[in-house]
């Protein structure tokens, strides 16, 4: 066509730039010790974390809280680089007095926002500011019969205000299918009752999203929290495939089998369908709110 000038290639140009730069995803693990946090993360990214291209460096977050540890992994898929940082927070809810045991986590989130803001406001600011902002907090709920504890409610209230929180039901192999369904219903009721805003948000009027995406988020929300099972062991299924699974006295559990647990849904959610939205929502909503508050306070 004669009036074609080719500006539609801008999408390819943008893609090339973004691919070259790579993406950073910072995931914080929250929950009492022994709930399978480390195991699940290893299960989630197993094929990547222990392959040769995966680096395994540990960096110290700024103003380090004694218990918070960050592990970094670079993953590559079809030329796209994902810098994955896992923020492990052992010690949460392990004390005799758990009052304000979420404070170090809130402080960590805030410190990263603060650091980003300072770099952004620097007269000679970097072209690409290293992003340490927490994009997702995976919150582990214990497999039980009553749902959230008082501590869960308090911690979730605070966390959901500053970071994208994705709740999961930990070690769900310890519940029957019926107990699992009941717990899920209880938790969904509690989220509503206590007004806990879980990610993905009910952003019906968000003009960044297509109507399909809005519907998809609605479907996802009805499935939360994902009931997950983690395992560091490789098992052989009756069909002869080798998969991640748990071998028990009564048989084997294949963590990748969606009829047994929702691990695959969680993985797809984090790495396939919502990876970019987690990053963007952190920047446009959580960081923006922090930034506005800080800059307004400065002016007063
Ligand atoms: P963390 O303290 O939250 O990091 O917990 P770990 O990942 O270290 O796991 C604590 C223990 O629970 C280990 O013995 C794991 O093998 C076990 N475990 C982890 N995930 C699961 C699970 O999904 N189901 C069951 N039954 N045990 C699990
Ligand atoms: Mg651990």
TrEMBL record:
Gene: CDC10
This protein's name: Cell division control protein 10
GO-annotated biological processes: cell division; septin ring assembly; sporulation
Cross-referenced CDD domains: CDC_Septin
Any one Pfam family match given in the protein's UniProt record, by short name: Septin
Family membership: Belongs to the TRAFAC class TrmE-Era-EngA-EngB-Septin-like GTPase superfamily. Septin GTPase family.
GO molecular function: GTP binding
Keyword Transferase (UniProt): no
